[in-house]
């Protein structure tokens, strides 16, 4: 006793704790007062960074502090793949003792580099990509929703003989791994009953539009650009001896893992001087003239479903 599946409620995305963190731009350089590691503490006024003086002193730690933007102080910027490198000079000057030409030390220039990361993680915590809420997992495992619809170019589903009917089959993936949808078979009837006496099977053998070869019709699968959607074109026709111009189309569709290659049981073929596959794997269509039985493929479908499209009406010109 088949029932149409209940559409699951789309779970709203869970709020993620987020706090924007602005990268802190380095703007200070600390220099030990024992610059030469000889026990002699230098005077702050004798030291400069690119011509800029010391702005603060930490007496407890015995360091001198420069508070300037790195791009100032006559710095030179170089860039590597991961870092910004600011290079500048610390200049130490000496002067003679008062009233004498005597000095006890020489001046010095010390090169300094400041390395800054080019990239930062601005979020508070990185998301765990493997974590999926239970509700999402339940939707992904238990329900697959297929759709079979007419891509209508005319109002009221009206077509004339020889017109092209565009049909799209799709599967809603939700939180599944990527899936690929296929059309196993399609039957046209004049009543919404797949077992009706007057019926016309135009797709058979797991994805082979048989009327394209037997009747030289233009029916074909379109090149597949999205794995969860497949479109095919059907040349409009009428059922001979029928009492109504209405036609109901019923298809068996299925979805399998998109990562698995197409084969004899999961394919979308078209005939044009030979059988060709919508995904380019033409070898999978080699059985369309025979029987694409269970031995032709080994992929178990995630879901199989009968789909009934809206009725269409076909008229003679």
From TrEMBL:
Indicate the transmembrane segments per the record: none
Q: How does it sit in the membrane?
A: Single-pass type I membrane protein
Is Disulfide bond there in the keyword field?
yes
> Which controlled-vocabulary keywords does the entry list?
Cell membrane, Cleavage on pair of basic residues, Disulfide bond, Extracellular matrix, Glycoprotein, Membrane, Secreted, Signal, Transmembrane, Transmembrane helix
Predominant localisation class = secreted
Domain ZP residue range list: 19-276
Keyword Glycoprotein, does the record have it?
yes
Q: How is it modified after translation?
A: Proteolytically cleaved before the transmembrane segment to yield the secreted ectodomain incorporated in the zona pellucida.
GO cellular component: a single term: egg coat
Which GO BP terms apply? binding of sperm to zona pellucida; egg coat formation; positive regulation of acrosome reaction
Entry note about domains: The ZP domain is involved in the polymerization of the ZP proteins to form the zona pellucida.
This chain's protein is named Zona pellucida sperm-binding protein 3
Annotated source species: Cyprinus carpio (Common carp)
């Amino acid at each position: 006793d088949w029932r149409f599946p209940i559409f699951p409620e789309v779970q709203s995305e869970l709020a993620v704790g987020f706090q924007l963190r602005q990268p802190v731009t380095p703007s200070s350089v600390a220099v030990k007062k024992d610059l030469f590691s000889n026990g002699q503490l230098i005077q702050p006024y004798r030291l400069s960074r690119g011509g800029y003086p010391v702005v603060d002193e930490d007496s407890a730690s015995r360091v001198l502090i420069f508070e300037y933007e790195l791009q100032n102080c006559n710095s030179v910027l170089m860039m590597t793949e991961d870092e910004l490198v600011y290079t500048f000079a610390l200049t130490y000057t000496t002067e003679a003792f008062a009233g004498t030409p005597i000095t006890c030390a020489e001046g010095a220039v010390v090169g300094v580099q400041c390395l800054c990361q080019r990239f930062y993680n601005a979020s508070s915590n990185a998301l765990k990509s493997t974590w999926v809420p239970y509700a999402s997992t339940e939707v992904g495992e238990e329900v697959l929703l297929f759709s079979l619809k007419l891509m209508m170019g005319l109002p009221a589903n009206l077509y004339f003989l020889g017109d092209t009917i565009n049909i799209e089959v799709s599967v809603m993936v939700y939180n599944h791994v990527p899936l690929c949808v296929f059309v196993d078979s399609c039957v046209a009837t004049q009543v919404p009953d797949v077992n009706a006496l007057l019926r016309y099977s135009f797709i058979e053998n797991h994805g082979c539009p048989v009327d394209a070869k037997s009747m030289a019709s233009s029916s074909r699968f379109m090149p597949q650009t999205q794995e969860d959607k497949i479109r095919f074109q059907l040349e409009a026709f009428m059922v001979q001896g029928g009492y109504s111009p209405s036609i109901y189309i019923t298809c068996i569709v299925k979805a399998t893992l998109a990562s698995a290659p197409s084969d004899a049981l999961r394919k979308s073929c078209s005939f044009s001087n030979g059988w060709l596959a919508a995904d380019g794997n033409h070898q999978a269509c080699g059985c369309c003239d025979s029987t694409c039985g269970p031995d032709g493929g080994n992929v178990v479908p995630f879901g199989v479903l009968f789909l009934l499209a809206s009725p269409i009406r076909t008229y003679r010109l």
